Amino acid sequence: MFKINEKDFDQFRESFERAKGIELPDDYVFFLKKVDLPDFLEVNFSQHEFANATVIKNWYGFGVRNEINLNTNYDFYVSSGRVPSEVLPIAEDVAGNLFCLGLKGDSQGRIYFWDHEEELNVENLSDLTVVANTFRDFIRAIAT
């Protein structure tokens, strides 16, 4: 993995947003631009409202190896119907569960937890667990 320069990042982002018909929230874009994802791996996530303490194994981004690329994972999870179209998978825990970023309407900016064990029971956004109201709150929960 490597950190891409800002010009390449902007091209990846614009192409991704155009192809998927979505707009990434500013706080998430800032995170992707400023954080070297390989250095931000293996962080703990535990929050009192969220019963499952877990470790984030992979962050999805641009210019990274295929299995943790945003575009690849969007196609694998969203385009295939495994997760609702209102969210974008942004991270994966050690058990293969996902943290997803809400993209549309009331879900925009919220962080959801998708449990792969419950995949067959997920029909819409209400079947996912809200773990943070904003991406910034999610990062704060990780940092504490």
Automatic annotation (TrEMBL):
Residues 14-140 form the Knr4/Smi1-like domain. It holds the Pfam family SMI1_KNR4. It comes from the Bacteria. This is SMI1 / KNR4 family (SUKH-1). It comes from Andreprevotia lacus DSM 23236. The lineage of its organism: Bacteria, Pseudomonadati, Pseudomonadota, Betaproteobacteria, Neisseriales.
